[in-house]
Amino acid sequence: MRRYDVLLAGIGGQGVITLGTLLKLAALREGVDVAGAERRGGAQREGPVTSNVRYRLLTDEERGDPRKAAFSGAIPRGGAHLLLALEPLEAVRSLSYANAETVIVTVVTPRVPTAVRLGTAVYPPLESLWDMLREVTPRVYPVDLEGLTRRGFGDLRRLNVVALGLASALGDLPVSAEALLDVVRDRLPGFEDNRRAFELGHEAAGV
Amino acid sequence: MNPLASPGAGRKLLAMGNEALARGALEAGLGYFTTYPGTPASEVGVVLQELRADFPGLYAEISVNEHVAALAALGASWTGVRALVTMKHVGMNVAAEALHFAAYTGVKGGLVVVVGSDPGAGSSTSEQDDRWYSLHTHLPILEPSDIQEAKEMTRRAFDLSEAFDLPVVINAPSKLCHNIGDLALGALPIAPRYRGNFERNPERYLNLFDMAARNHGRALANIDRLRAEAGGQGFDRLLPGPGRTGILTSGLHYGYVLEALEILGVPDVPVLKIGMSYPLDPAAIASFVASVDRVVVVEELEGFLELQAKHLAYDAGLRTPITGKELFPAWGELTADGVLDGLAEVFGAAVPDARGLGQRVLAAHAAEVPPRQGAFCPGCPHRGTAYALLRAAGRDVVYAGDIGCYTLSVLPPFRVSDFVTCMNCGTGSGQGIARVDGTPVVALVGDSTFFHSGVASLLNAVQNGADLLLLVLDNRWVAMTGHQPSPTTDVLVDGTRRAAVDLMGFLKALGVRWVRRGDPFSPGTLENLIRDGLKERGVRVIVVEGECALQSERRQKRGPPAFEEYVDLDPERCQRCHRCYRELACPAIRETVGPAGEPVYAIDDALCQRCGVCEALCPNSAITRTRVVRRRAA
């Protein structure tokens, strides 16, 4: 059995669930088993949202064993291979799913919680957030996705496709970049721009 | 065609749990559907309404409340049409009166009740375990363990319902309803039954005189027959093993248990997975309990399986210890990690240390990680209302909150809800407080919540001369659950007109003498109107009219924009009074850094909905709206 678990984290309105759906559709296209668990923040804007994307490759023998065939959508503690966060604080909030090998990719633009807005809490400096992440894994990649997307397209509409390209390059996803691009073509308008956005993500990964 | 309407049996697609539930009903030949939307089960209704285009005979409605929805579905079932009614767990309380009769009358077309439960109460004011209802409604319960099973069980539930003359409940927790995973489709029936035939049957349908008692007896006989034949239904699954401690579990926790056993390195534990959690199969329970020295029940919320299993084991003369709730709390969500920790204790096995690294680091820094709460969307009419209300009424009134998007007004910076329990608690309990406490009471209610069950509360207040200021926040949609139409929806997103209730006229007809209309996007005017209302006595109602920003934006996006509009905040004029940033707390107003490194406020153009509230309340005229009307090329 090969497993690959991706945890996506962000806040309401950022498109976390949609990003998870794109990653799952790619699995369907490639014949990889996929399960998921989403936390939707009570259908609210600005609340924490996560999406679990669990990929699995089984042998025929394993598929015939009911104990192995059962497929829970919830990533257990310390189980994420890749943590992709669209908000820095939410990367830290999801740390219990990371382990010493986890690849953490995070956006560097804070979205301040109301408590910080009201002055009743402090948003920690980004460097200290990265340090917290690095206490768990050395594979931490803070990326200025907003700057990158704005420079490439003038606005932020393609940000999640850039993120998808980045995840595909930095993670060891069991789905190919081609499958992800096919899904993007099927699901999102403006494919030429989206392909450029995906490639921008790949290039930013520097791999 | 919607992929969920695909006739292709065996085709695999990606589906949400709620979509799988809907597809299961279609594969069973669903003809009649009702629902009142409620998280987590709302999307079942969204999907079935959309699918009317592909199933022209299918009837699918958004009902005014769960009580009507359940009664109507029962009526359709009596005519021989297969019917489905869905609701959230607390909706069961509203539907309960109807559902207590359903086993008395029995069904003709299969009747299935999908209940979306909310362990952890992430989107609810209660996490009640609705399974207990079946001990007195006598409705069988199926608990799917994954998305595929959600479809299969729903499909089979209709057959079960007809075979045993009982409506069948599908219990689907939020983690199943909302999860998105792969689903293999089954075949669709060639000719679902869309037209029925009601045949008089007084002994079943007239619960009068001694007939109600006899129907009670028949309901009990039906559930006893199912109990006796439970083993033949094939909903449960036994994984045998040589271990002396057995695990009894159901639903999503089956997957959690198996993965936890794998992580803990105790693979050969006997596991009995319950698919039908009411009535339990007495023979399966007795033989499982007899095969081990100890049974641990892994179930979410209260000990429903545990109680039944103990009862059945006792009847079988067994004294094997059966435990569960000592290890797995009867409240809160039982997560995969909660199962892992509990089973580690049961089997004396340690969770591998490396798995806990992230959790330990997070725990060490917990105090540095500020919490994040939800907020009104940019452009939401409720933000202006909450702002104006707090300025007008201050902290010297009792704020009677209610259920809807505006429940978020309970959070800082507004905190204009002092209690929130169930639908229409504001008007309901508010009038009790107002009667015996001298403090003025201001109640909030949304349009859909008001029509759900608030009409009687308001009428009661009027008839009994209560002192109450009620704000009906009419945003024209059941917004929180995904924008189902409400009785005040007059234009759909595609521009179609719809017959809406005349709310102002309706309130006057109820006998409310002081009725006014307010505009949430003019916070100053609304504030004055609320001050006026506070000076009056008796029942006063302000209808605050402002459409949900997400819906009006969707409608506008369908046509070419008539003009472009920009909202700008001039840092030169801004005095940093914080009114927009802190008191209004709109997510589209952000703090950034000015040219000299000083903090400045700015409008985030990507988030701003141009609602104009910040412009209206800025005392320094630092916020301006500019409209650019594009001339058409000649």
Q: How would you portray this structure in words?
A:
The complex is a heterodimer of chains A (207) and B (634). Chain A is an alpha/beta fold. Helices cover 44% and strands 19% of the residues of chain A. Chain A has a single domain (2-149), classed as Pyruvate-ferredoxin Oxidoreductase, domain 3. Chain A has a six-stranded mixed sheet, sandwiched between helices. In chain A, α7 (145-153) packs across α10 and α8 (159-170) packs across α10. Chain A is globular. Chain A starts with a strand and ends with a helix. Chain B contains 22 helices and 25 strands. In chain B, 52% of the residues are buried. Chain B is globular.
Short description:
The complex is a heterodimer of chains A (207) and B (634). Chain A is α/β, with parallel strands linked by helices.
Low-confidence stretches of chain A: none
Mean pLDDT reading of chain A: 94
CATH architecture of chain A: 3-Layer(aba) Sandwich
Q: Name the CATH class of chain A.
A: Alpha Beta
Give me the count of strands of chain A. Answer: 6
> Helical proportion of chain A?
40-55%
Distance between the termini of chain B: 40 Å
Q: Return residue spans of chain B where pLDDT drops below 50 for at least 5 consecutive residues.
A: none
Strand order, largest beta sheet of chain B: 3-2-4-5-7-6-12
Largest interface in this structure: A-B, 70 and 67 residues
- Outline type of chain A: globular
Largest sheet of chain B: 7 strands, mixed
- Give the helix/strand class of chain A: alpha/beta
Sheet bearing the most strands of chain A, described? 6 strands, mixed
Beta-strand content bin of chain A? 15-25%
Please give the oligomerization state of what you see: heterodimer
Q: Would you tell me the structural class of the helices and strands of chain B?
A: alpha/beta
Q: Strand order, biggest sheet of chain A?
A: 2-3-1-4-5-6
Tally of discrete structural domains of chain A? 1
Counted by DSSP, the helix tally of chain A is: 10
